[in-house]
Amino acid sequence: MKTRLVPVLATLGLSSALLVAPLTSGFSLGHFTLAPAPAHADTTTGNGDGTAATSAGTVSLPDPVAVTVQPEVPYDEMPNGIDIASWQHPNGADVDFKRVQAAGYTYVFVKATEGTHYKNEYYVNDAMAAQGNGVLMGGYHYADVSKDARAQAAMFADTISVKGGTSLPPVLDIEEAKGLSAAQLNVWVRAFLQETYNRVGLKPIIYSYRSFLMNQMGNTPDFSGFPLWIADYNGSQSPTLPLPGGWKTWTFWQYSSQTQIDGVQAQRVDANKFGGTMLQLRVFAATGVVPAEQK
């Protein structure tokens, strides 16, 4: 993945060191510090005490880091994108990404996996078709928190690494608590994020919705340094503020689940905004650096 993205960095006039650095040292993300990504796959287990153990040591909880307030970008200038799953392939219909791109949608997140066994049969074709038509593409994993986090992260990482990988960082989609407490959920999320980082080498995006983050996750600020993709269908031109979980910025905003998109035969498609400019989106795709940190 590093090699594949270096030409993109060169096009943007950026150093490839921006990609290499996160892979060789630990870094702090909100309250949660990821351990350095090892040369080979690591194992991560939750301790149940607010830490997660890895072969590189115990994940610590340092003081919060400062988060820059998100710069304002006019709503109409925020890049549009969609996210899709098997539901967007009625009767096996393909998504026409040439038409999607022509309709003004510049990126797509495709469901790759769910739990420990499900793989989206359309994922590989969607990933290749999107990128072949100039649409930035990322994969997401739908969490089943009743099953092992590390096993899910491993399957997810393996799935999104095929056929040229992705052009956007990996996404954890967490929407169901399945009886776990906030503390248990937090340990599960830490383990998944760490294992995904170990295998992919990029800081994952967290997708969820407001009430889940505030209630089931206990409104913890521990993950506020990770890019946030928030679902909030409020009919406004920005997500509801203040954001939950200590986030000061949002990276992606899913503002509708009822959009009709040229090129997608399904009647309902999730529509999203990126919280920056198109140039910032390209930088984010190349480096994983969110707009507020692009200084």
UniProtKB/TrEMBL annotation:
Pfam families per the UniProt record, alphabetical: Glyco_hydro_25
MF term (GO), any: lysozyme activity
Name of encoding gene: acm_2
SUPFAM superfamilies: (Trans)glycosidases
Signal peptide positions (record): 1-20
Top-rank taxon: Bacteria
Organism: Lawsonella clevelandensis
Record has Magnesium as a keyword: no
Family stated for the protein in its record: Belongs to the glycosyl hydrolase 25 family.
GO terms, biological process: carbohydrate catabolic process; cell wall macromolecule catabolic process; peptidoglycan catabolic process
Protein name, UniProt field: Lysozyme M1
Entry keyword set: Glycosidase, Hydrolase, Signal
